[in-house]
Amino acid sequence: MARQVIEGLEKAQIGAGQMENSVMACLHYFFQTIGENYDYSYLMGISGCAFRIQYHFPEPCPSSPHACVGFSCEEEMWKHLPYKVEYVKADREDPAWPKVVDRIMANIDKGWPVLLVSEENGLVVGYDDEKGLICRPYATEEGYYPVGDEEGWNKWPWAFGFIERDETFAERQTEILRRSLVLIKELWEMPAIAAPTSPEIHSYALGKAAYEKWIEQLGDNTIWETGDGQKDFMNQLANGHTYYSLLDARGSAEEFFRMKPDHPGDEGMDEMIKEIAGMYAEIVSILSRECPTKIAPMPWMEGEWSEEQRHRQRQILEDVFAVEKRIIETLDISIL
């Protein structure tokens, strides 16, 4: 196996306060590494992650903001890039496993990271005779880590993702932008999508319905104070992660529309986009009105998460909900 490592990703921020969406963060760093200029906000925009809100019900779940559950933003994203991905199970008992290892090593040798896929994504960045596969995991201190069997974000993954060029891609940039605008409205009105693990019981509400369910549940103490410590921990984790991810997403939405080129002769669309970008900036300001870690703390943070804090968070989300409604009213699909 020898040793080969892709340098430069030791400080890559994947989740934990920066680039909350691990799927899009890893793709951002992948493209950066191979010399493509697809930054995080752009990927969030073309995928719909920047505009989507999902809320798992009847109980909250930390999976709600993930790019691959509910409405698959990752699937949407690949439609708008000259690249494609193939996922291969990380099954070391499979007779074909040596070929998977060879493929990983070949990617690393040419300087292309490999996606490390589990509940959250990381990147395989190297291989080593002693350490085996080497990765930059989700939400960890800076540096590289061996892919291992212990618990932690460098644990053995569910699958590996191999990205390749798609020579059939022919979509124009203006078409991608128009699709993103249409997607805002589609995601707002989209019906609930069944959760893959228990579709008879659990679903993801989207858009308008997601806000309504989240706001309603924040006013119901029985959701957050069940008497079951583990369940309360996971519900609070779900709330915090969904809140931070919403802030991250709407910040990305503002950046996505601010960086788009003007379209001569299409002043109506340009003005509408500027107005929408301004409203996404307004949402970011509202969500940051109080320190997010104070209003929606993670369960391991100091202090309790009180009914009064949930009431304040609920008021913030109601104000955000009102701005989201204005965005939908501003969208003039007829000019796209």
What distinguishing features does this structure have?
single chain; 336 residues; alpha+beta; 2 domains; 7-stranded antiparallel sheet; 3-stranded antiparallel sheet; 11 helices; 10 strands; 45% helix
Distance between the termini: 53 Å
Structural class of the secondary structure composition?
Answer: alpha+beta
Give the overall form: globular
Largest β sheet strand count, sense and barrel closure:
7 strands, antiparallel
Number of helices, counting only DSSP H or I runs of 4 residues or more = 11
In short:
By secondary structure, the protein is an alpha+beta fold. The chain contains 11 helices and 10 strands.
Structure overview:
The chain is an alpha+beta fold. The protein folds into 2 domains: 3-38 and 83-165, no CATH class; 173-335, no CATH class. 45% of the residues lie in helices and 14% in strands. The protein has 11 helices and 10 strands. It has helices spanning 22-34, 40-47, 73-78, 97-109, 173-189, 207-218, 221-224, 229-258, 267-287, 292-295, 307-330, and strands spanning 3-5, 54-57, 83-89, 114-117, 121-128, 132-136, 145-146, 159-165, 193-194, 203-206. Strands 1, 3, 4, 5, 6, 7 and 8 form a 7-stranded antiparallel sheet that branches. Strands 2-10-9 form a 3-stranded antiparallel sheet. Strand 4 and strand 5 form a beta hairpin. The chain is globular, with a radius of gyration of 21 Å. The N and C termini lie far apart (53 Å). The mean pLDDT is 93.
